[in-house]
Amino acid sequence: MARRIVLTMLALIGALLVTTVVPLGLITTSHEGSSFRQDTILSARALAGLAEDRLADRPPAGIAAVARALAQSRRAGEQVRVYSAGRRLVTGTGTGGAAAVPAAALTSALRGRLVVDSRSDDRLRVTAPVMGDDGDTVIGAVVLSRSSQELEEQVGVLWTWLAAVALAGLAAAAVAAVALARWVSRPLSSLDAAAQRLGGGALDTRSAAGHGPPEVRRLARNFNGMAGRLESLVHGNRAAMADVSHQLRTPLAALRLRLDVLSQDTDPDTAEELSGAQDEIARLSHMVDGLLAVARAESVLVEPAGIQVDEVIRDRTAAWRPVAEERGVDLRPSGGGPVPAIAGEGHLEQVLDNLLANALDAVPAGGQVQVSAVVEGDGARVVVADDGPGMTPRQQEMAFRRFVSSTPGGAGLGLAIVHRLVTSNGGSVALSDTPGGGLTVTVTLPAQNPDRNRRPGLAPG
């Protein structure tokens, strides 16, 4: 944003300077050129008045005035030639052809007309008629050739000053724009960083609210208020869930012990009913354990670290292989070389434990569960595929929600925990059908730190 502010201000100031300085320079240049032209014409008329004495054979005093004027013109770098009515060169300065006049211009001057000619060699030539005493008779012509080099130098200096002023104004505007951009963007950058930390799980994050424009300060205060309320709500929710789960464990354990005692000295029918009650208590205990696992998953701050996915897969499949052999399920890892990824400590292990537990519960004896990992783009892809009964599209859509289970007696928390752990590390998880029947779970993890670590509790599910 700071760069856009600076570029916008520089563009506006630049456009303003161009629309101001360029017309000013053009008008001044035109004025100087017009003044130079008028001054040359006046000088030619004055020389024509002095040349009248020479052409009319006036006393030596008049001729001396003409000589002084010619000498002054010579010192000024001007070239002057005086012609008689018969086109004869009477006197002049310089030996070159700078003051030479074309026949057409000399003819016009001898007819009483003033001729102004801008030559290609950067000189202005004025041919003026010399009038007699009666004011009607033309007795000769004066040709004045004046160099425009001095005018061009003045115009060059003028444009240099105008360019310097424009550049100084543009530099001052750049300094002001940078200061303004920093004043506006620094509080916004701080607020953006605070929002990222808050989204990453640091619920105690607050933004500085004492800098920048009033609107930004007000936004920072509102953000801090929102962060405080969010922290209070999230902590209250987690504490309530953890407290309720912990408080339920003790009476459930006591109830299980009482049922065990009662089932020892009862008739077979009553013992069967008590066994069903114990199964329900076991299911409730499993659900409480799942709630505790969800609470822990939602309260853990993500600290990404480099892991080797292939090594974690080999470790967890080795740990679950006795369970798979006991149930007659073929559990096998597959893959090639190393597969690096970024994940929180122990998170991938928890994910694989939940996925393998679900798969082994769903696959019948003689089935197969395959775990693989490959490098994909800038991350890692982990696939757990089984050939069990699978899920319907509706069940797959609802699978990551709490307490939704496709297995009879299931708590419906395993995939919810998987979803929150994976998304907290900047990854994603998806369900699909295994070719030939079954369910495939695909987990993607980044291979480098994500831009923003999201909290599982804030991820959609």
What's the CATH H-level homologous superfamily of the largest domain? Histidine kinase-like ATPase, C-terminal domain
Q: What is the helix tally?
A: 10
Which strand order do you get reading across the main beta sheet? 2-1-5-4-3
Distance between the termini: 34 Å
What's the domain count?
A: 3
Strand proportion, as a percent range, falls in 15-25%
SSE order: HHEEHEEEHHHEHEEHEEHHEE
- List unreliable stretches of 5+ residues: 450-461
TL;DR of this structure?
The protein is of the alpha+beta class. It has ten helices and twelve strands.
Keywords:
461 residues, Beta-Lactamase, five-stranded antiparallel beta sheet, Helix Hairpins, 3 domains, five-stranded mixed beta sheet, alpha+beta
Write a structural description:
The chain is of the alpha+beta class. The chain has ten helices and twelve strands. The strands form three sheets. The chain has a five-stranded antiparallel sheet with strand order 2-1-5-4-3, with helices on both faces. Strands 7-9-10-12-11 form a five-stranded mixed sheet. Strand 4 (123-131) and strand 5 (138-147) form a beta hairpin. Helix 4 packs parallel to helix 5 and helix 5 runs antiparallel to helix 6.
